[in-house]
Design a protein that fits this description.
The chain is mainly α and 115 residues long. The two termini are 23 Å apart.
């Protein structure tokens, strides 16, 4: 079970990397928001799976922390999805892309600093 959890942690971190990489690409002028959107989706899904796997493994979790991280991850996904939809209609919203990146960093801070 430990190996499966670690593999999902890797996928979770790759989702974060996709979000931040997508933000960097968007700030450099890219019109493709696919990495940002798919990274945000991956973060929500792998985060939920990690909670379930850790619960099954009888790990101690701070449920308030999990709830905060889930809410922030959903906000990241919403910003990414809306930014991509608006960009496809020719109405770019760079503030939403910036918000997605900022909220992602916030989620990293919550993950690392909340004990």
């Amino acid at each position: 079970m430990e190996l499966v959890i670690r593999l999902f942690v890797v996928l979770h971190l790759l989702g974060m990397a996709a979000i931040l990489g997508g933000w960097i690409a968007a700030r450099a002028g890219s019109t493709s928001f696919a990495p940002l959107v798919w990274g945000a989706r991956a973060q929500v899904v792998t985060g939920l799976l990690l909670v379930g796997l850790n619960e099954m493994n009888d790990e101690s979790l701070i449920h308030a922390k999990v709830a905060v991280k889930l809410l922030v991850a959903i906000a990241v996904a919403a910003c990414a999805e809306i930014a991509a939809a608006r960009a496809s209609k020719g109405e770019p919203k760079p503030a939403l892309v910036d918000a997605a990146a900022g909220l992602t960093v916030l989620n990293v801070l919550v993950a690392v600093l909340w004990h």
